[in-house]
Structures are given as structure tokens and as C-alpha cells.
DNA sequence: ATTGACACGTGAAGC
DNA sequence: TGCTTCACGTGTCAA
């Protein structure tokens, strides 16, 4: 059964004549003899393979992949890039402020009440505590001087450093802010607790 | 059957679709009316468009693009991701070193007030309260004398006793520490509330 | 049987 | 001209 499809040979500039419609009913072109094949067949094959390879490489680079689909690979790559961009931004901001505060000891504090002062008076002191709860779960407690946007920046920094927050709660009192959080560990390191503690100290130092 | 207009992809130069497929061998299960035409045609079209969209979004996210090709878009995305990863690593290292170099060693250790004394003066008393919320969920409230590491040890003990913490918050005031937590029950016991309360009392007694 | 994802071969544009 | 890239419709395989 072979029918000759509409408009096959002629140059026929198809304006709308792409037979994409309904009853196309084009079956044509048997394979009798040798209807010469397209010349770009191999080229096309190479192109496809190259694209597949790139996609594979991309997938290898992205840590989390929800699915193996081509589309989802790209999708995951997109969100990963966004995450990385955000990380860089946060880290840069942290570094910048840290440098600034290190150069100038005390910035002009024009707040009404200095949280640091209040904290000192209350006998509350900043601290970071990290304990291993279970497997790769860590419980962290952070007390630091309350600052405007401090919590947000803490969260951003922790995210930037790869912490996966499972549960978090925050409360403020007497100029101090207490954040207790259950997080998933970042590395499979041995002394993860100590490393995490150092990291957190570093973070709240930059806030 | 409508067909989605080929809808210029924005980036890629639009091209008219051709429809020249060769019909493979064995086909058609019916001939009476008009039935053939593979049914996944629209699905395939959607899939292609989705992939194109993702690729477009990816390209929009990558700052430098050497070429508009599909393959090169992915290629550029790959190198961009590598660059970002390197950036994050460098920044983290920088921040870490900075913290190490600026060890002020301040951290004044001064625990002047005795929490127990303060608590007694404030009229706050230790207590444990357990109520059943829903099914096997319990809500617990614990007030006890604030001690260094007390909360951590409470968490450790509760974990050790098999409590599964759903949500926890802690606050301290006037020498006392209040922990309110939503936990999943440990046993399917009948008088689970009472049993849990005894367990918690025992725990904070040992802290 | 139905659905979703893929690779394939091919005509059409652009350079 | 040739060469590259693209979208298309389709068959096929797996869940």
C-alpha cells in the first residue's frame, strides 16, 4: 500500500501547505529500488549524538536530578544554576560586610537601643552548639546578637553553605536571637560536628 | 484537530513544518474510516515545545552564549555551572580563612547569675505537660531550670528514648527554659500521655 | 490498550 | 553552491 504523498518532488514552497492537518492520508514512497536517501543523514546523526552527549554531561554536573528526562535535566540544571547564583551573591555579601567590619571596628550605630548592650546586660552571650542526633542529622543551636535581617541572612548563609534545613525555630529575647534548627549534614566527614560548629561561628561572625 | 501554530520559538528562527514521514512497514489496524495517524502526534509536539522552552530558559540564565545552537547552549551552561561552582568554593575558602585570621579570642565567659536562684525569685516552677493532639501526635511543654547544655541533653535524651520530633521551639527567660514540642508517640500504648510525662520528668531530672 | 519519552530519517531554511 | 541546524511525523520501547 503506497500512495504518493502530496507534493513531494516539486519545489513547492509550502506556505501553509504543510500537511499537518487532519486527514493527511499521505503514505508514499516505498522503498523499492533505491530512492536515494538524504545526504545529511549522517550529519544529522552526529548532531543528535552531540546534543545527547552535552545533555549527559550537564546531567553529570547537576547534583540533584529528579528525573532522567531531557526536559527535566535542563529544568534541574536551571534551578541549580539559580541556586548557585544565589549562593555566590550571599557569600559575596557576607565577605564584603566582613571586610568592612574588619576595617572599621565600629560602624556608626544609630539604633535606638543597641542589642549588643542589652544582651551584655542580660548576661546572654552568643554561642553556637552542634550535636549529632541521628545518622546524618544535626541539631544546632545558635544564639547571637539580634540584628535587623539577621535571621534571614543566617538562613541564606546556611543555605549557601549547603545545609539542608529540616526544622527550624527562632525566638528573640533581651536583644538576643536564638535559632534552633535540625539540619541534614553537608559532608560525610568524620568530625562533622566540629566542622559545622566552626562554619556556623564563621557565619554569625559575618552577620 | 487543531494544530498549534509552529509558534516561533523566539530564539530559533521559525521554520515551517514539513510533514514528510515515511510510513514504515506494517501499519494500520483499521481502514474503515479515518483513523490512523499516530495518536502521540500532539504529545510529541508538546514534548518538543517543552524541551525548547527549557532550553530557552537555560539560555536566558547563562550570561555568555557563544552560539545559538542547542548543543552550544548546553555547552555554555556547563561551563557556566563549573565557573559558579568554583566561585562558591573560592568564596567559602576565603571566608573561612578570614575567620581564622581574625580570631579575636574575645568571647567573654561570664556566667554571673545562678539560674536556679533567678528562677526561684521569679516564681517559675519546673513542670511537664503532655497532651494528645491527634492520633499518635503529642504536644509537650517542658519548663525546667536553665543549664548549660540542658536543651541539648534534653534533645539527646528524647531522641534516645525514641521520640520523633516533628516541631520544636525553645525559649529561655528568667533562668528558666521552656521547650514546647510536637512529637510522634513512641508506643501505641493506651495511656501514652501519662507514660510520656513520666519519661520526660525522669529525663529532666537527670539533666 | 494507553501513555510518555526517544531516536530516527527527512525537507526546509539560513549562512 | 554545500553544509549546518532545525522541526516535524512516526515507529518503537517501556511502564
Automatic annotation (TrEMBL), chains A, B:
Chain ranges of the BHLH domain: 35-84
Pfam families with a match to the protein in the record: bHLH-TF_ACT-like_plant, HLH
Protein name: BHLH domain-containing protein
Localization (cell): Nucleus
Keywords: Coiled coil, Nucleus, Transcription, Transcription regulation
GO cellular component: nucleus
InterPro entries: bHLH-TF_ACT-like_plant (IPR054502), bHLH_dom (IPR011598), HLH_DNA-bd_sf (IPR036638), TF_AMS/ICE1/BHLH6-like (IPR051358)
Molecular functions per Gene Ontology: DNA-binding transcription factor activity; protein dimerization activity; sequence-specific DNA binding
Ranges in coiled-coil conformation: 74-101
Ranges annotated as spanning the membrane: none
Major site of localization recorded for this protein: nucleus
Amino acid at each position: 500500500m503506497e500512495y504518493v504523498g502530496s507534493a513531494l518532488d516539486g519545489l513547492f514552497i509550502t506556505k501553509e501547505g504543510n500537511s499537518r492537518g487532519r486527514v493527511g492520508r499521505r503514505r508514499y514512497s516505498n522503498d523499492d529500488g533505491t530512492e536515494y536517501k538524504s545526504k545529511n543523514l549522517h550529519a544529522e546523526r552526529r548532531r543528535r549524538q552531540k546534543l545527547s552527549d552535552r545533555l549527559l554531561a550537564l546531567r553529570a554536573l547537576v547534583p540533584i536530578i529528579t528525573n532522567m528526562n531531557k526536559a527535566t535535566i535542563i529544568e534541574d540544571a536551571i534551578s541549580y544554576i539559580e541556586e548557585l547564583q544565589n549562593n555566590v551573591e550571599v557569600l559575596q555579601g557576607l565577605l564584603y560586610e566582613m571586610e568592612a567590619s574588619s576595617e572599621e571596628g565600629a560602624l556608626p550605630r544609630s539604633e535606638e537601643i543597641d542589642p549588643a548592650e542589652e544582651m551584655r546586660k542580660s548576661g546572654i552571650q552568643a554561642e553556637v552548639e552542634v550535636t549529632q542526633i541521628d545518622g546524618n542529622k544535626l541539631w544546632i543551636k545558635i544564639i547571637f546578637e539580634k540584628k535587623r535581617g539577621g535571621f534571614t541572612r543566617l538562613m541564606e548563609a546556611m543555605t549557601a553553605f549547603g545545609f539542608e534545613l529540616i526544622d527550624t525555630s527562632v525566638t528573640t529575647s533581651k536583644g538576643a536571637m536564638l535559632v534552633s534548627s535540625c539540619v541534614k549534614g553537608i559532608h560525610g566527614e568524620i568530625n562533622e560536628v566540629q566542622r559545622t560548629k566552626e562554619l556556623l561561628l564563621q557565619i554569625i561572625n559575618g552577620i
